[in-house]
Amino acid sequence: MERTVFKNQSFYILLITFLGILLCWNLWTFWNSKNLIALIPAIIQIIILGLIFTKNKQAKLAIKIWAIILIAGPSLSILGNTIKVLLGDEILSKIMPLIIQILILTAGLYINHFNNTTVELKNIEEFQNQ
After folding, report:
1. Hey, what long-range contacts does 44-50 have (CB within 8 A, 24 or more apart)?
2. What are the start-end ranges of the E strands in the chain?
3. pLDDT band of 31, cuts 50, 70, 90
4. Which residue of 9, 55, 74, 94 has the lowest C-beta tally within 10 Å?
5. What is the largest CA-CA distance in the chain?
6. 76 vs 70: CA distance, rounded Å
7. Which residues does 29 contact at the CB level (< 8 Å), separation at least 6?
């Protein structure tokens, strides 16, 4: 049986912190707006946190899929805002949302990189021997 092993404890702690902050944000958004759409990312984040805490062998794959979503979503948003600005929309109203999307895109790229380089699957026998 395989388990997920995080070789970089800083990445492990930062990943859990980032997921926790996003989870709180989505739950706060749901609580204030009563919009059920805000529960979808919250449920996904709870599942990923559960996989990480239990060191499930699917944790690496779940983090990778989540990172790809964190990369694809802001990339499309940045592209859309760029097209709007090129078509003559006001640039000043797009700056702050653009900065937020760039930060989320950067976080997704870092999560994907560190997930690929510092997270690995090991057999339980190897895990117990170390």
Report:
1. 45/19, 48/19, 49/16, 49/19, 49/20, 49/23
2. 2-6, 119-123
3. very high
4. 9
5. 63
6. 11
7. 35, 38
pLDDT digits (tens, 9 = 90+) for 50-99: 999 999 999 999 999 999 999 999 999 999 988 888 888 888 877 888 89
Cα separation, 89 vs 34, whole angstroms:
31
What are 127's two structure tokens? Answer: 């895990």
Q: Taking the domains of the chain in order of start, what are their residue ranges?
A: 2-126
Rounded CA-CA distance 91/30 in Å is 30
Instruction: For residue 51, give the DSSP letter.
Output: H
Both tokens of 13, joined, read 């702690």
Rounded Cα–Cα distance for residues 111 and 114 (Å)? 5
